[in-house]
Design a protein that fits this description.
It contains three helices and six strands, in the order βαββαβαββ. By secondary structure, it is α+β, with helices and mostly antiparallel strands.
Length: about 120
């Protein structure tokens, strides 16, 4: 499965801490809802992947600022789980993240397939 997703919020903006509890921020919930809508539009949700998967993320940042690519994975995988592409992100047996050249607004191209 191949999807083109919006650029996710940073890890610092995805999570919020309040009164000793950690939860997903409003921005993080919006991102998950946006990914869910993209998956629903394609009609590819509903747990198509139940076993181990390989995920390749091609990250096209919105600008040339320095970013750690490893910080992208959590928001993206969490959104894919929310959209029912994955049963749980623990299924990811092989994860690759490739930083590409910046594009206006940024985008994520993600490919999910069964791990053999």
């Amino acid at each position: 499965m191949r999807l083109v997703l919006p650029w996710p919020p940073s890890v610092n903006r995805y999570w919020r801490h309040d009164r000793g509890r950690t939860h997903i921020s409003a921005e993080g919930r919006r991102y998950r809802a946006d990914v869910w809508a993209i998956v629903a539009e394609r009609g590819t949700g509903g747990l198509p992947f139940r076993g181990p998967v390989r995920v390749v993320i091609r990250a096209y940042p919105p600008d040339r600022r320095r970013r750690d690519v490893d910080n992208l994975a959590k928001a993206i995988l969490d959104a894919l789980e929310f959209a029912r592409v994955l049963e749980n992100d623990h299924q990811v047996a092989d994860l690759r993240i490739v930083r590409e050249e910046p594009v206006r607004g940024g985008r994520i191209e993600v490919e999910v397939e069964e791990a053999l």
